[in-house]
């Protein structure tokens, strides 16, 4: 327990650092700083996805499935090798962007993720390998491995076709799609099934099969939505739209399971935990609806031409669905302690910045004016998120300061 709690603190530390880099990027627009903006963007995104989410998810998987298996030494080797990769990226991306050393550490990180995946699939206890949670988590890991086809192909694409080729962007979008939807969200769903099984909630094989097939097929087909900016034939729109609909059907099955077992779930959760879980479900529904909208040619073109809509959607998914979903599981399984103040600060920063980002997108789309000091408000709103993370990381120290004051 102590080791996994400390590892979760490491992941939250990466999240805090990524959030502070986000503040720096938004402050850059207001008061230019002596940094390379593009290099900091690379650092921000890598540390957020690979430092916060990856470490938090893999720590949860080890804590829930393997901590009693006597595998601590093997797990520690993987964990610390992964930290070397992350620190290497942290020390190279801000100064050189994508170049030799940052690419070396990024490549080593991919190998570390393969190492963890093999470790989990091999050593997860047999009693859990037939569970619905394990099935989802195993496929989530396979999606994570599959997503690395994108980064692996970039070298050849740059050499043969150049960075201006559509294949360069498609490789990046392939990676991001299967990271967000295949690895991160499906892993959260796997953890949710573990939560249901933990509460002794029975789910029929038929119900789970219907959920699983629609969700997996939906994740695969919805990748075509990431190709629509190229103006492909109509079949790509149809396949992408079908993928979005299938994911919505899978979501509906999951919500129906929750509705049937709402009494059991309410009795097992505190009011704060229940509210956070409901919020994650709402955010995921909106995310899926936005995804479905982009299957229509008009909105696909809009998403491709108005950058703020894409940025807003990605932050909605990352800061909303994935990060708040992780907060729920970390709180429920006793790895962090969420306070109402921490949640209030986090939601305040998340909702304020999302509203401002989407407003700027609407302004570009409909010709609305940007109000005075827009950039200052966006930078200021971003500060609420690192403040919330400080409250999560050091709740006792914050309470002590309040008491002494």
From TrEMBL:
The keyword Membrane applies. The keyword Transmembrane helix applies. The chain crosses the membrane at residues 12-35, 47-66, 78-95, 101-121, 141-160, 180-199, 211-229, 235-260, 272-293, 313-336, 343-368, 374-394. Keywords: Membrane, Transmembrane, Transmembrane helix. It comes from the Bacteria. This is Cytochrome C and Quinol oxidase polypeptide I. It comes from Arenibacter palladensis.
């Amino acid at each position: 327990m102590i080791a996994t709690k400390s590892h979760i603190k490491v992941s939250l530390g990466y999240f805090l650092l990524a959030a502070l880099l986000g503040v720096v990027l938004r402050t850059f627009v207001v008061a230019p700083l002596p940094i390379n903006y593009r290099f900091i963007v690379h650092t921000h995104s890598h540390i957020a996805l690979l430092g916060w989410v990856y470490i938090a998810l893999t720590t949860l998987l080890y804590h829930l499935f393997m901590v009693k298996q006597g595998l601590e030494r093997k797990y520690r080797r993987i964990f610390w090798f992964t930290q070397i990769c992350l620190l290497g990226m942290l020390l190279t991306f801000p100064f050189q962007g994508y170049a030799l050393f940052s690419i070396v550490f990024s490549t080593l990180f991919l190998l570390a993720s393969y190492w963890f995946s093999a470790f989990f699939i091999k050593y997860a206890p047999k009693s859990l390998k037939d569970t619905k949670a394990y099935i989802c988590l195993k496929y989530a890991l396979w999606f994570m491995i599959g997503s690395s086809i994108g980064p692996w192909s970039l070298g050849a694409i740059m050499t043969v076709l150049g960075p201006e080729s559509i294949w360069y962007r498609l490789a990046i979008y392939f990676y991001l799609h299967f990271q967000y939807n295949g690895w991160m969200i499906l892993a959260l769903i796997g953890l949710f099934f573990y939560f249901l099984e933990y509460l002794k909630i029975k789910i029929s094989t038929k119900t789970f099969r219907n959920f699983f097939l629609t969700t997996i097929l939906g994740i695969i087909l919805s990748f075509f939505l990431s190709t629509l900016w190229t103006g492909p034939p109509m079949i790509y729109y149809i396949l992408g739209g079908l993928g979005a609909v299938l994911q919505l059907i899978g979501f509906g099955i999951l919500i129906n399971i929750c509705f049937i077992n709402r009494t059991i779930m309410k009795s097992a959760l505190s009011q704060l935990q229940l509210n956070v879980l409901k919020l994650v479900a709402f955010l995921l529904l909106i995310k899926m609806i936005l995804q479905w909208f982009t299957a229509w040619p008009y909105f696909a073109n809009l998403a491709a031409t108005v950058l703020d809509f894409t940025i807003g959607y990605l932050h909605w998914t990352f800061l909303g669905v994935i990060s708040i979903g992780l907060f729920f599981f970390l709180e429920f399984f006793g790895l962090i302690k969420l306070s109402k103040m921490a949640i209030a600060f986090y939601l305040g920063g998340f909702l304020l910045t999302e509203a401002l980002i989407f407003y700027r997108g609407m302004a570009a789309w409909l010709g609305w004016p940007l109000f005075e000091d827009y950039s200052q408000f966006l930078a200021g709103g971003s500060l609420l998120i690192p403040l919330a993370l400080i409250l999560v990381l050091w709740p006792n120290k914050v309470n002590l300061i309040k008491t002494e004051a």
